[in-house]
Design goal:
It is a single chain. The chain is of the alpha/beta class. It contains 9 helices and 7 strands. A hairpin with a 2-residue loop joins strand 2 and strand 3.
Length: 224
């Protein structure tokens, strides 16, 4: 069994904020894969379903971001989960908007939600980093993450990112994290189309070596 955790803050006031992209990701996974309704449990909201033939629980802690670890710790102990089966989806200021990176373990990087998880379950869980960009100065960070995504973002890279994360979530439970990152990246930032290779002229096109056709004719005459 796997546990997918979305980090965010509960309540309609926070639902559209950049800090809640983790909630948005697990909501889209639930919708795309036909999960059951979320219900209150483990100091959060949890939903059950399956992805790529594996049993998965989706968890949105309702403890507010800074205490997310309490909810995740309670759920992981109840299900007797190894931390390697826990994937946490969250906002990352250090990634360009729309980028996605996946790694296991590491530091909190100033993210209070991760700091809380580290304290309650250790550091060896999977981190699905969803880039929201940086406002440019650390003094602007709090206001930036607690602000709703701009309308332009909501109609451009954000839905592409959430759709791709949901579409390719099966790669995570299959242990294909690198493939997941590649698929999500190409969905949000499609690579430029490959240019066709230039056609190499053939002899029949008159593109052979200079004098080649004449040499062939001379040889024919000698044989006659």
């Amino acid at each position: 069994m796997f546990l997918f955790v979305g980090l965010g803050n509960p309540g309609p006031k926070h639902s559209g904020q950049r800090h809640n992209i983790g909630f948005m990701a697990v909501d889209e996974i639930a919708r795309r894969h036909g999960f059951g309704p979320f219900r209150a449990r483990f100091q959060g909201m949890i939903s059950e379903g399956s992805i790529a033939g594996q049993q998965v629980r989706l968890l949105k802690p309702t403890t507010f971001m800074n205490e997310s670890g309490r909810s995740v710790g309670e759920a992981s102990r109840f299900f007797k989960l190894r931390t390697g089966h826990i994937y946490t989806f969250y906002d990352d200021l250090d990634l360009k908007t729309g980028k996605c990176r996946v790694k296991i373990g590491g530091g909190a990087g100033g993210h209070n939600g991760l700091r809380s998880l580290d304290a309650h379950i250790g550091k060896d869980y999977w981190r699905v980093r969803l880039g929201i960009g940086h406002p440019g100065h650390k003094d602007r960070v709090l206001g930036y993450v607690l602000k709703d995504f701009a309308k332009e973002e909501q109609s451009s890279w954000l839905p592409k990112l959430l759709d791709a994360v949901a579409d390719d979530a099966g790669l995570l439970v299959q242990g294909e994290e690198n493939a997941f990152m590649s698929r999500v990246s190409h969905a949000v930032f499609p690579p430029p189309p490959k240019q066709p290779k230039p056609r190499t002229p053939s002899v029949s096109d008159g593109g052979g070596e200079p004098g080649q056709a004449g040499a062939d004719n001379t040889q024919t005459k000698r044989e006659n």
